Structures are given as structure tokens and as C-alpha cells.
Amino acid sequence: MSDSGGPDVTQELRLPWDDDPDDLYEHAPCGYLTTLPDGTIVKVNQTFLAWTGYTRAELVGHRRFRDLLSSGGQIFHETHYAPLLRMQDEVRELAFDVVCADRSTLATLVNSVLARGPANEPRAIRTTVFNATDRRKYEKELLYARKQAEAAERRVKVLQGIVADLAAAPTEAEVAEAVVRAPEPAFDAASSSIYLIDEERDLIVAVASTDPTTGNWDDMPRSSKRAVARVAERGDLHVVGSIGEARQHFPDLVDSMRKSGRNTVVLLPLTTGPTDEQAGTETLGVLAFSFTGERKLSDGELRVVRLLGQQAGQALDRARLYDDARLREERATFLAETTRELDELHRLMPRARRLVDRVVPQIADWAQLRLAVGTPGILEDAGAPPPAADLLAETEQRATGACVPVFPAPGDPLGCVVLPLTARGRVLGTLSLRMVPDRRGVEAERAFLIDLADRAGLALENARLYEQERQIARTLQRSLLAGELPHGDPRFALEAHYQAAGRDLEVGGDWFDAFLITKDRLAVVVGDVVGRGIEAATSMGQLRSAIRALAGEPVGPAKLIEGLDRFVERVHNGHMATVAYAEIDLVAGELTYTCAGHMPPLLQPPVGPPEFLLRGRSAPLGSKAGDTRRTEQRVRLPAGSRLLLFTDGLIERRNRPLDKGFEVLSREFARRRDAPMQGLTGGLADMLVSRDHTDDVCLLCVSLGTEERLERSLGADRAHIALLRADLRAWLVGHGVEPDCRDPVLLACSEAVANAIEHGYRDNPFGTIDVVATVTTDAVEVRVTDHGVWRGAVADVARGRGLQLIRESMDQVMFDRSDGTTVIMRRSREGR
Amino acid sequence: MTDQWVSFSKVGDAELVSLTGEIDLANSGEIGKAIVGRIKESGKVLIDLTTVSFLDSAGVRLLDALVGDLLGHGARTRLVVGERGAARMTLTLCAFREDVLTTDLERAAADLK
């Protein structure tokens, strides 16, 4: 007994029956073989014979152990078993497949011991053979399971990679690219292709493939009988295991499977959710992948395939939303930019032009804007080629008639969108667009176009209103400026000029006025109201009227401006307007002036240089911060003086200091001291104001008193004859010369000047002609001098008639050719 | 361009050319062209000068040429000039043909009937 009280195992227990050693050898639970050192079997037990099916006679003395092994086993026997045994005298647990009598193999594990003789020579090999069939099967299963696990892991890795790619793919095209690359690494597929469903066109379109030489790439309607369309409709995974199966279920696959050597095709719908939850699941496309050789997919693989379908479907769904969102964003940007760009232009025509220029080519390849504004209306187009005019006209009529946008139906021969443009309940016209057809987003696109039409309509309506307002302001201003200036009084002459700001700008607030306060007191005014448009024109009208109402003999300029200040306060209009106001006493020859924030008047005395009248200054009307103590200044105004009132637009230029502007104006005014009054102010403006001026300009010139002598110097230009005549007529009237004398003198003077131009300066357009007229109580004398070359063409009929007229009109005509040619003409004031 | 000095209308079957303002060397050429362009084919032409405020020798030259042309191809013509005024004065001083001058538009029209 052992210490523990259990049986003592160091001694054999006695069995309850007799154990025969022979029987134990023959029927042991393992095979026994005894062989000679060369392997020849000399003894074998029954167990081995039973396992292998050989008889003892077949083996003993006839076969070596190695002869019983499979060919691989024989090699192993030679390379491992035999050398090991010789070196170690034993080998353990070597696996051999024993070939049985019926050629089946028996998996075994072999232990051998080499028995040696007294001289250490090998004598026999004793071998036990264990049946390892079950163990081998188990090992195989283990191996298979490991392989399966590895494959599943690889698939999962591939799938994880794909999912990451899908998450990063922002567009439908990129999702398709990522998905189509999945089946090859994941399932060892030979190639794959992806098809997407275009819901709006009801088509299925192949978008990507790893081997574009396989398969059918035509678009197919969703109702097609083709396998892809069927699977898309059903939304179920289909595995076509063989060409036979294909022939049975999807005959359209047979050809392409044959051609590309494919035996198995998997058709996987790409769905927005698990396919077993039909509700709310949408199929967005189909992934097709195929294998060379018939390939069975394990349940695990099929699960992964389905998962791929869902992941891809969800990524597609997201990308579609993203694509839509991006398109919407692009459209929103376009709308915002269009609105802004249209706002930059105020006038209608430029706005209309800009609209079509923005639309083409950004969203359309042809566009036409038709506006029923004015006659004959506005028509702008861009792009080419234009569609059929009759179809377009008909559609435009339909759109404006019903006031609804017309979108082209599929196959519409016109193929244009026609949008009615409306604003404030009024149809302005139409915007017609021919757009490149887009696969998707028709609804969103329509909403976008309607939005575009709304904005365009409003922008164009605003421009139309702007034009209208501008026109009203122009008309108002013109009516205020067009009032007749006093004339016919020989003691003074007035000449005014108004020039609107450069093209496309609103009317400004410059104005002039002149009126007689009494028969001997003349008021002249030039002013500038802040702002533009109707408001400025209105303020200007109010101030102009207020000045006329306030002016009176005992008032004077300073008091008048004080009155204007009160007026401005009361009507809340015209604040910061500037005014130069002057009263001229026609009897005393005295000027009283004041400048409320305005440019100083420029006075040209009969002799000497012109001077700016810089006194009598105070702040603009209604000014809060400026000095509003109104003052006035008196200066003598000798006969022959000219006074110029003007607004800042005349001399202000961005690239020139104001001092320089004053200087240039003074010089130009002096240079024209002998120029006829008519056209003087216009000429100054032409000279001084740049072509692209941004401010309006207003000038008023008054010439004082009747000159004793009329002295004029004019260019050799036919157009100047009329200007001279105007001055001469006014001068003659001023001196009380009666029409009976006046008209012949005007005629003779005109003829003499015409002669000088036509003949004296025939070859010199830059020559000047001096005219001096004097009057006495009984006669008028006019001298016309030129420095040209007279040719002795006395026979010239035209010249003859001119000279005849001079002689007929005047009492005395003389020619002095000592310095150029002077015609001296006299006529008595008495009737003849 | 010449609209401020010349306008055209009809009196019965006669072409009426109305001149106004100052006609001188500077504008007579243009005015002449405008008139000739209009009355080339006319058989009866009235030229109204009653509101002309100035007429110089170039204007007379123009009228002379016009009347000469019209009479030359058998057209009938009259100039309407006031009793007094600048145009009458110049035409008188030039000794223009009295037979084509009348003082009254209606009488001139009747003359051409």
C-alpha cells in the first residue's frame, strides 16, 4: 500500500482474468512491426494487418516498411526516419500515410526503436504504429478554421479600408471608384463593375469598372430584362454560380461570361439599408463582380458582401446629398454674385446686358433677354446658335401669358427654359435660356431658375424705375433751367450754360438764375444743391423760387442769404447748398455780391486782368458748424465788365489742385475777353471740363453796360459770323440804332467778314478777323480787318454780289490794304 | 442738321419750303442740299421766307440757284417775303427778280394753281 492509502502502482496488479501475452501482442491497440535493419518485415501483429487489409504472408519476408508508405512518406522515410533512427536508435511520432491493400491511405504516427547486437551492430527495428486518422482530421479542421479566420480577417481589413475610402469620397463618382476596387482584394474576384440608378431619367448607367473590356456598357432602362436591372429592382444579392445557372436565370450574362472567361458572377445591390428591412430601403446601384472558375462563396463571405452593398449604398446616398448640396451652394453663390453685379450698374441697358453676359456661359450656352420697356423694347442675347425664332416667340408668349416659367419637356424641339420676369405684379419680359442638360437635380434646378428670374426681374424693374426717375429729374431740372433769362435791355447781356455730368450719372443739383428785381437792378445767382436725382432737382427748384421771392430792393445779398437760411430750416431741405448771389445796380454800375460756401465769382474789368471776388464769404446754407454771419461786398462794375458765376464742376479735377483750376479759368476767361458773348460760357466749359467729368457744371456770364466801341476778334470760321452779328445787333440796339440802319449795317458787316473768311483766309483756317464798330449821334462806322492774301478775282460773281451788297447797304465803303485788308464802312443813322 | 432753319410741307399740290432764322454763309450750303434733295421732282414749289431774320449774299446765291433750277426744268415757283424785314431788304438790295416774289402765302399758292 502506498502512503496515501491507494494501490501501490509500482507493482502490477493482478488482473481478474489471465492476460495472454500473445493475445496482447496480436490485438494491442496499436500496430507492431519488427523489421530487419533494411526494413524487411519479419513480424507483424494482427492489429496492423486489420487496419491495412494485408495478410501476414503478403508482408513478412516480402515487403519493407517503406514499401507500405505513400510516395511522399517514402521520401520522408529516407530523408528523416532512417537517418534519425541510425543516429538516435529511436524515432518518435513521425507521421506517415500507410498505403493499405485497397490503395486507401491510413494516417499513422510511428515510433521505432533500433535494437543492436553485442557488437553494436543494428539487429532489428521494432515499430509501433498508431492510427492517427481522427487526429489528422482534427488537425485539418484546425488548419481550415485558421485559414477561414485569416480570410475573414483579410476581408474585414479590405472592407474597413473600403469603408474609410467611402467615408472620404465626397462625390458619387469617387464613391463608385472606391466601391469598384473592393471585390478583388476582398474576394479574389477577377474584375468588377458598378452601375448607378439615375432615378430622374429612369435609367441604369455603368459608371466604373476594373476591366472595361468585360460586360455591356450601354445605359439600360430600369425596366430592362438585363440581370443588373432585375437585381436592382429586387434589391437582393444574386450569385450566379455557373454559366448553366446564368443561362437559366440571366441569359444576357451568358455571352459576356463566356467571352471574358468568367464562371461565377455576383450581383450586389447597393442599398441605403439592410436588404431584409425592405421598408425605407432604396437601391442606388449594383456592384457586379465575377470570378474565373466556379467559386462558391461561404456564408461568411456572403455576409461581408452584403455588408459591402450596404456600406456602398449609404456612401452613395451621402455623396448624392453632398453633390446636391454642392450644386445648391454653387447656384446660391451664382445668385448672390449676379445680384451684386447687377447692383453695380444703375441703368437699365447695362444691367440687361450684364445679366445675359453672366448667364452665358456660366449656366447656359445661349440666352436672350426680352423686355417690354419703352418702344421698341429691349432685346439682349448672348451665346450661339440661337434657337428657332418662331418656336421661341410662341413659348415666350406662353410664359408671359400665364406668367409661369416654361421648362422644356424631353424631346422639346426648342429645348429652352423661358422664364417670365415679373416685379411688383407686372410682367417685364422674358429670360430664355438654353442649358446643358444635367442628369440630376431637375427640381432643385427649377427652383434655382425661378429664383434667378425673381432676382433678375426685381433688378431690372429697379433699373427701369431708376431710368424713369432719372428722366423725371432731368425733365424737372431742364424745366427749371430753361426759364427765359432777362434780355433786350441794352445795359446788360446774359449767357448761361449747363452741362450734365458724364453719361450714366444722375442729374446733379447745379442751377443758375437771373432776374430783374426792379427795372434797374439785376440779380444773378448760381448754386449747387447737395445730392443727385429728383431730390436734388426738387431742392434746387425750392431754393430758386425762395431766392426770387426773397429778393427785393431794400434786402440786399446778405439779408437774402439769411432769409434762405431760415427757409432751409423751415422746409428741412437744401441744407449745405452753396450759393453765389449778386445784385447789379444798372444805373450806378455797382455790384453787390455774397458767397455762401460757393466758388468766388470771376470779374473781368474792361481793362486789366480778371480777378476772383474773394470777399463776402460765409458758410453754406443751414450750416451748423460754419460761419453763417452773412456778409456782402460792393465793387464797382464799369461798363464793359464781364462777370462769371460758376459751380465747382468747372474747375475741379481729381488730378489737378484747385489753385491750378482757378488759374486756368482766369486765363481762359481773359483770352476770351473780346469773344462774342454768345457761346462764351459753352466754350469755357468745353475747354475746361474733361470728357468724363463726374459732376455737373453750371456757368452764368453777365456783360455790363454798352461798350462805347465794339471790339471783337474772331476766328476765320463761318460759324462765328452769326455770333458776331448777335453781339453787334445787341450793341447797336444798346446805342439806340433804329432797324432801318441796323439791318443794313449787320448785312454789310456780315458780308465783309464772310469775304475775309472766303477770300482773305481761303488758305489759312487759323487767321483772325478784327471787327471794330463805333457809333456817333449821326453815323455808324464798322471796320473789318484781316491779314490774309486777297487775290484779284474781281470777276468772282459771289464776291461781286457780297461787295455789291456792302456798297448798297452802306453810304461809304473804303478799302485800306496797307496792313492786310481793312474794309471801312459808314452809314448815316438818318433814314435815306 | 438743318431742321432748325428749314422745314417742308404741302400747300395743295405744291411743295412748301419754310425757311426761318438767320441764313448766311455758314448754313446756306447745308440748307440748299436739304431743299434740293426734297423738291427735285416737284412741279410747284413755294419758298416761305417771312420768318427769316437775316439773309446774306450766300443765302441770295442759294435762292438764285434754286429758282434758276426750278424754272429751268419747267417747275413753277414763288418766294414769299414780307413787305419789310431782313430778307426783303437783302433781296431788294440784290435786285432779285420781282416776278417770283410775293408777300402772301395764299396769293402765292393761288398764283401757282
Automatic annotation (TrEMBL), chain A:
<dbReference type="Pfam" id="PF13492">
    <property type="entry name" value="GAF_3"/>
</dbReference>
<dbReference type="Pfam" id="PF07228">
    <property type="entry name" value="SpoIIE"/>
</dbReference>
<protein>
    <recommendedName>
        <fullName>PAS domain-containing protein</fullName>
    </recommendedName>
</protein>
<dbReference type="InterPro" id="IPR036457">
    <property type="entry name" value="PPM-type-like_dom_sf"/>
</dbReference>
<dbReference type="Pfam" id="PF13581">
    <property type="entry name" value="HATPase_c_2"/>
</dbReference>
<feature type="domain" description="PAS">
    <location>
        <begin position="38"/>
        <end position="69"/>
    </location>
</feature>
<dbReference type="GO" id="GO:0016791">
    <property type="term" value="F:phosphatase activity"/>
</dbReference>
<dbReference type="InterPro" id="IPR036890">
    <property type="entry name" value="HATPase_C_sf"/>
</dbReference>
<dbReference type="InterPro" id="IPR029016">
    <property type="entry name" value="GAF-like_dom_sf"/>
</dbReference>
<dbReference type="InterPro" id="IPR000014">
    <property type="entry name" value="PAS"/>
</dbReference>
<dbReference type="InterPro" id="IPR003594">
    <property type="entry name" value="HATPase_dom"/>
</dbReference>
<dbReference type="InterPro" id="IPR052016">
    <property type="entry name" value="Bact_Sigma-Reg"/>
</dbReference>
<dbReference type="InterPro" id="IPR003018">
    <property type="entry name" value="GAF"/>
</dbReference>
<dbReference type="Pfam" id="PF13426">
    <property type="entry name" value="PAS_9"/>
</dbReference>
<keyword id="KW-0378">Hydrolase</keyword>
<dbReference type="InterPro" id="IPR001932">
    <property type="entry name" value="PPM-type_phosphatase-like_dom"/>
</dbReference>
<dbReference type="InterPro" id="IPR035965">
    <property type="entry name" value="PAS-like_dom_sf"/>
</dbReference>
Automatic annotation (TrEMBL), chain B:
<feature type="domain" description="STAS">
    <location>
        <begin position="4"/>
        <end position="113"/>
    </location>
</feature>
<dbReference type="Pfam" id="PF01740">
    <property type="entry name" value="STAS"/>
</dbReference>
<protein>
    <recommendedName>
        <fullName>STAS domain-containing protein</fullName>
    </recommendedName>
</protein>
<dbReference type="InterPro" id="IPR036513">
    <property type="entry name" value="STAS_dom_sf"/>
</dbReference>
<dbReference type="InterPro" id="IPR002645">
    <property type="entry name" value="STAS_dom"/>
</dbReference>
